[in-house]
Amino acid sequence: MNVKLKICGLTNAADVQAAIDAGADYLGFILYPMSPRFVSPAKARELIKKVPRRIKTVGVFVNSPPNQIIELMEFCGFNIAQLHGEESAADALEIGRDRVWKAMVLNTAEDIEQAAEFPALAILADSIGPMQGRDTNGPTAMLRSVANLPQRLAVGTPVLNMRFSKSALAGSDARRRLRALIETYFQLGGLQVQISVVDRAELEDALIHPESHADLIVRIGGYSTHFNRLSLELKREVIKRTEYSL
Q1: pTM of the model
Q2: Residue 179: in which H helix or E strand, if any?
Q3: Which H/E stretch holds residue 44?
Q4: Which of 76, 91, 126, 135 is labelled catalytic?
Q5: Taking the domains of the chain in order of start, what are their residue ranges?
Q6: Does position 208 have pLDDT exceeding 50, yes or no?
Q7: N or C: which end of the chain has fewer CB within 10 A?
């Protein structure tokens, strides 16, 4: 298998040059305003002008209209649109299947079938973690299991989502244990962990009373966003995630 390297979330010239020097095949720029790594279209255009033609550039979008994505791809000079929201097959076809990467949740056989039929150049797994409810032996066993996957052969960086309750990480002792857990995962071959620290009860209340949780932010594959901005289906997906303790 021919392995390709993508470095994403670039926001400045120094990091772009470092990624080029490191031998990246793809450079990613996030045009989702809620992301802490958001870059404006004008800034992305400026940075891309310095990128050699041999390196492909990727714009990361979340639920942007297809016509807007097409315009931004032309303006910024993106080769690929990486879609991380609830974009439809029709949206991808309008953009062009040969220049779309689509991030999808792959938890069931039906999810995999839908991904196989989606009109995209590549499908990115939203998380490589186990299906909700299947990881019953604690975070250490789950991380060891996921680390057995050949993650370095994946297109992009495989994302692993984890959710901890606030009480589980209370105190410096708990945070030291979490750090040791993550460092061990990386030593075993893991590449990326995205952690949300929020209680299930808070998420369930936010589903019923969104007006009381306007500032609630959660991690989705590749970006952070306000819980209230998610579709109902994705909200339920986040709530179903296993809540770990240490």
Answers
A1: 0.65
A2: helix 172-187
A3: helix 41-48
A4: 126
A5: 1-126, 129-246
A6: yes
A7: N
Other beta carbons less than 10 A from residue 43's beta carbon: 16
**CATH number of the structural domain 1-126:** 3.20.20.70
Residue 118, number of CB atoms within 10 A of its CB: 17
Q: Is 171 left (phi over 0), alpha (psi -120 to 50) or beta?
A: left
CB atoms within 10 A of CB 167: 11
Assign 30 to helix, strand or coil. Answer: strand
pLDDT in tens, 51-105: 999 999 999 998 899 999 999 999 999 999 999 888 999 999 999 999 999 988 7
Residue 76 a catalytic site member: no
> Across all residues in the chain, what is the average pLDDT?
87
CA neighbours within 13 Å on the CB side: how many for 177?
13
* The two three-digit tokens of residue 140, written as one number: 């250490």
- pLDDT for residue 106 is more than 70: no
Q: What percent of the chain has pLDDT over 90?
A: 46
Whether 8 sits among the annotated catalytic residues: the reply is: yes
Q: Please provide the distance, in angstroms rounded to a whole number, between the alpha carbons at the two ends of the chain.
A: 37
The amino acid sitting at 2 is: N
